[in-house]
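Lecture 7 notes: from sequence to structure.
We start with the chain below.
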Amino acid sequence: MNKSFDILVVGGGHAGIEAASAAARMGCSVALVTMDADAIGRMSCNPAIGGTAKGHLVREIDALGGLMGLIADASAIQYKMLNRSKGPAVWSPRSQNDRDAYSAAAKQHLERTTGLTIVSASVSHLHIENDRVTGVTTTAGTEMQCRALIVCAGTFLNAAMYTGLDRSIGGRFGENPATGITETLLRHGFETARLKTGTPPRISLASIDLNETTLAPGDEHPMPFSFQSPLPSFEQVPCFITHTSAETHAVMREGFEHSPMYTGRIQGAGPRYCPSIEDKIVRFSERESHHLFLEPEGRNSDIVYVNGFSSSLPSDIQLRALRTVSGLRRVEMLRPGYAVEYDFFPPHQLHLTLETKAIRGLYLAGQVNGTSGYEEAAAQGLIAGINAVLALRGEAPFIISRSEAYIGVLIDDLVNKGTLEPYRMFTSHAEYRLLLRQDNADRRLMPHGNRLGLIPDAVYASVRDREDVIASVRTLVESRTASPGVLNPYLASVQSSPVTQNEFLGKIIRREEVRAADVLRLDGIASEAAVATALADPRIVEQVEIETKYLGYIERQRRDVEKFSHAESMMIPENFDYSRVHSLSSEGREKLMRVRPRSVGQASRISGVSSSDVSILMVYMK
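Predicted structure tokens for the same chain:
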């Protein structure tokens, strides 16, 4: 085996997959070092991809040339677009996936990638010389050299698992922890802390009385994640919904005295927005029930994931509590839920490229940075992989602004605000979310993906062609009028008030009950060449409708982005001495020296830096 590579990636989870794939496809020699090659892409928790805001991340990863969307489509068993009853800014795609098929597809993608070697080993030591990473040593004593190293160790760093009072070491059921990496970085001045995550029990599908549950089917017209995938044509597998009861909560309270969280055995903070069932019972004591989602782990699998029932209580308590739930009275528990406590590195220690500030060539991506979720990890892995290659080439870094993408929001929040609990992406985190919709991720980000060599020219050309059609149709609807004789029969059919004179099509489309596709099919309009092309592609019509209906709001957000960009363009020298600015508050100075922002805009988003601190800094910079 060759033991010298341009880039080493440690960890074969969702972050490691994206980092290794992107770096290799950009022309570097890459080794993905993972404990078990058959565990690449293993879905540690729920068998699903996407969800609220997370689906935006997957679409953005795909638009930049990442793999997650393609792998999700290759293993999907159900699709849903969440939040359809709300505005398009918060529509979020989600898929249920075959757990084994997802892992197999991920491994297959990597095995087919030129320049990428998969190495089954566990890294125990990092080689660092003159504040630069030079390689690693594995637990077997093998030394490997590199010019850049990306650590994507997930929940495995010095990890321990808990079920009740039972404790075992490992970052995932049946898998060993990773030791030595934390210790190496501690010796080089890094800060570290502990976080906690958890997973629910798995139960047997055959033991569920589905007649006592509520059917949760997929969308009638499903849409894939990847902009390169065809429309799904398979029969979708349903999920099921049930709920806990007061009896369930009473049984679980019996186990609280043996809970590793309530007895203090686990010190790490858990995810606030994905709490364990025992957390829900305590924090929302006034509620008598909580929804549970029964999610099959595969098309032909008997294993069901009990979403909403994450727990680290004793296994006998978990089983007794499950058997109080409607549809689960005779359920068989295949594996109890458990909690995992692990090391992470507070992300203020990173640049926006995800390279560490203390060690050149060392990048951290995924849950080691304090995030929660497959999608947040994959996004970081992709950015770290891209920037590692660009740094080795001596080229400018690839930094996505929070006004450009949810990925930019994610990394900006981590570096500037830090996290004391597992960070989860939400649409509310994005100030410009009407511009950063999941449906237009290709239009926003594929130019970057193509420039980096991760999006093929043919794929990007189709996006450019579609962009031309969207622009033409948008111009048409804002400039073309139609007569009452053409408009009123349609308006009557959708119970919309009639018009008494010629009216602009855009004004008609902005009515809530009106659909753009119907207006474009009216006499005298559908014959236009651009309109005919648009009507043949539902994605084009969707873009036209959204941009027409929300025109005023979109223009307002674009003006806000211009103001934001001005502050981002006011650069701060890398070695700026904040101690010279005596008017800064003590906390503001401390936080600025800790994060060392690249711009005044970035400085304004650091927790503890006040608006007056920013004003003083701007005056001093001028």
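Points to note: Residues 67 and 109 are 8 Å apart (CA to CA). Residues 570-621 form a domain with the DNA polymerase; domain 1 fold (CATH 1.10.150.570).
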